[in-house]
Amino acid sequence: MTDTLTNLPTAVEPRNPGMALDLDWALGIQANTSAIERRAATLPGRRSVKKDYQAAWLAKAITMIDLTTLSGDDTEGRVRRLCAKARQPVRADLLDALGLPHITTGAVCVYHDMIPAAVEALEGTGIPVAAVSTGFPAGLSPLHLRLQEIEESVKAGAKEIDIVISRRHVLQRNWQALYEETRAMREACGEAHMKAILATGELMTLRNVAHASMICMMAGADFIKTSTGKEPVNATLPVSIVMIRAIRDYFDRTGFRVGYKPAGGISKAKDAVTYLSLIKEELGPRWLEPDLYRFGASSLLGDIERQLEHHVTGAYSAGHRHPIG
Question: What is the tally of structural domains in the chain?
Answer without folding.
Answer: 1
